[in-house]
Amino acid sequence: MTEATSATPAPDALAGVLADAPFVRLVATDDGDALAAAGLLARALRAAGTPFQARIGRDPVPGDVDDGVAVAVGVDRGPHAVHADGRPTSAAAFAVASALGAEPDPVVALAGVVAAGSIPGADGSGDALDAAERAGRVERRPGVALPVSGGSEAAPSRFEALAASTLASTRYSGDPEAARDALAPLELPAEPTADDRRRLASLVAVDAVDGDGVSARAASSVERALRPYATDGPFETVGGYADVLDALAREAPGTGVALALAGDPDESLLTAALDAWRRHGLAAHRAVDAATIGRYDGCVVARVDAAAADGSPAILPTVARLVRDFRSPEPVAVALDESAGRLAAAAADPIGLGDACRTAAGEVGGTGWGTAARGGVSVGDADETGANQTGATDAGGDVTAALAALREAI
To answer: Which GO terms describe its molecular function (predicted)?
Structure first.
């Protein structure tokens, strides 16, 4: 099975199909961009009174729906798909939802854009940014893109949020106490001024590019975390919202779907979302810090133990992205967990990585999945979503063989 088997229809065409459907099944890839896109479409269907089901799958394959329509979100597969050929899927979903006659939430769309690695207003997201600015829902400001800036019973403190954020990788990422120590000299007040926010952003920007093993790509990668858009959404910034969605898509997909569908999420849902995000981010950073990293022609491999970092294999795609963006001099990064029989890969550009993972998995009797720029392989784990699984297996040798096959394929 390949990644692209259908042509993505124009927004009006797909909206016409969905408007006439008695039932719609949405299956999204396990990333924050596709999760945001699924939320936009689901909300539009709900507004139109169309019954729907939404879920996350690491390799969506739209099945037959009796008297209904199946839509793949985030990958171009099947007769109906929302996919933007390398651009954010959430921007495409915003256009489809608008064509359905809904008023899609532009903040959700922009969060998906950031989760896709882009910036608000770029890569087809201009309409969403314009709508958010016209409604007074976003404002660019100095600082760092975090979901929260101060602690409460439901939210992490500023230093915990900084340690958990996966939009940057610094000396204190994964370590809340180290983040507290790093922030102490800044003496940031509970309600920081613009100058306070600039000083925080300067600290993060410098720390992201400083230290042994930092790649040249780090300087551009950390830009996503700086000068964020503040928003009136459920989280303080668009970038923080994106970070939460990306973590939930892998760590707690049920919570992620509930959050994406909620126009006004209640306190219990926000608490669950932030808890899962914090757990995921801290574990991913700890795994990166403890990784044994080797460089090969065309890729860098980080050998990790997710369980030792108090995480599950759900952190591996995030580990691969962090290594790619902040540690890898090569265009592809692979996070390999032999004890879990799992690997995840992330590429700087679309290179057919999902197909390469499927090919590699096929050579060792495993399962491969992914999109053009990211993918994964598991051996001895039948879980379809790839989320919240300890996945321990005795097939570590096979996943190592899958790594060798993947290196050949890319």
So the answer is: exonuclease activity
